């Protein structure tokens, strides 16, 4: 048996400690679903929003592919992915961990003033602060700050330094949104025929539009930035003026974009630019 590559050795070491791992390709992105699972044809884990992996033996469904099973990690079905991989990622929530991802120096300075100290891992531009305990994942809780725990993945960048602290209320509180200001009443849209009600408020109509938008992002193989922006623009041009879209709907689009390698900041910028273009 040949010696496993360095990334696979790292993955096997982490898996042996109970940390579910997966390979990431260029752009720090998960590998795309196989043909059998493309566009959720397998009926497995739509948009990685439910717990547990698909039954596919390949590296499918982003964070849901993470495993601690050495037989799976070393299997022929994963071999091609490891050969193309650029780094190892892990599913923090499944390991009982929460990663506060600080994207730049300003975010790091904020954390040092605001959050309890814990184990710290340096990243390319900032730091990962790792706490013992799991919670839901949230993007852009503060400028340059994401929370990665359940149903998310984080790059493994080494063991880090410092003693890991129990997940504090100060981190959990970041996920609690302030009360939203009241939205203006949805405007009626003139229809060629019908009862005059806004058709965007029909659940099936909105759901179909969002599903198509997610599929468009998921299926793209190039020009991801442009595709994400144009998809956001299309959704907002149809649903942006009547109050139909909720934070949950927007999160679905952001999740699809991030599964293709977009950062939370890029998603937020694309969304803002699309709103500005449409005068929203």
Amino-to-carboxy terminus distance: 60 Å
> How would a textbook summarize the main sheet?
6 strands, mixed
Mean pLDDT: 81
Shape: globular
Radius of gyration computed on alpha carbons: 20 Å
Oligomeric state as shown: single chain
**Structure annotation, total helices:** 9
Name the beta content range. Answer: 5-15%
- Unreliable stretches covering 5 or more consecutive residues: 46-51, 178-197
Number of strands: 10
What is the element string, with H for helices and E for strands?
Answer: HEEHHEEHEEEEEEHHHHH
Give the class from helix and strand content and strand pairing.
Answer: alpha+beta
Structural description of this entry:
With 280 residues, this protein is α+β, with helices and mostly antiparallel strands. The chain has nine helices and ten strands. The strands form two sheets. Strands 4, 5, 6, 7, 8 and 10 form a six-stranded mixed beta sheet that branches. The protein has a four-stranded antiparallel beta sheet with strand order 2-1-3-9. Strand 5 and strand 6 form a beta hairpin. Helix 7 packs across helix 9. The N and C termini lie far apart (60 Å). About 9% of the residues have low confidence.
């Amino acid at each position: 048996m040949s010696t496993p590559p360095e990334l696979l050795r790292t993955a096997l070491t982490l898996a042996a400690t109970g940390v579910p791992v997966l390979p990431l390709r260029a752009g720090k992105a998960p590998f795309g679903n196989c043909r059998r699972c493309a566009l959720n044809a397998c009926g497995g884990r739509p948009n990685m929003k439910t717990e547990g992996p698909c039954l596919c033996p390949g590296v499918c469904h982003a964070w849901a592919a993470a495993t601690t099973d050495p037989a799976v990690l070393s299997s022929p079905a994963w071999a091609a992915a490891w050969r193309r991989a650029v780094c190892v990622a892990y599913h923090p929530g499944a390991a009982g961990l929460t990663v506060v991802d600080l994207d730049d120096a300003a975010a790091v300075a904020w954390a040092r003033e605001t959050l309890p100290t814990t184990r710290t891992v340096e990243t390319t531009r900032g730091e990962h602060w790792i706490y013992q305990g799991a919670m839901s994942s949230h993007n852009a809780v503060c400028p340059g700050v994401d929370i990665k725990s359940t149903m998310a993945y984080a790059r493994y960048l080494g063991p880090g330094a410092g003693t890991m602290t129990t997940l504090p209320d100060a981190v959990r509180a970041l996920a609690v949104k302030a009360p939203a200001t009241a939205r203006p009443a949805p405007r009626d849209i003139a229809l060629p025929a019908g009862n005059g009600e806004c058709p965007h408020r029909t659940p099936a109509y909105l759901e179909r539009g969002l599903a198509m938008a997610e599929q468009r992002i998921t299926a793209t193989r190039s020009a991801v930035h442009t595709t994400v922006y144009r998809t956001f623009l299309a959704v907002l041009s149809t649903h942006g003026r009547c109050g139909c879209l909720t934070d949950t709907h927007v999160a679905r689009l952001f999740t699809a974009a991030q599964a293709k390698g977009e950062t939370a900041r890029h998603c937020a910028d694309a969304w803002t630019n699309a709103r500005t273009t449409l005068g929203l």
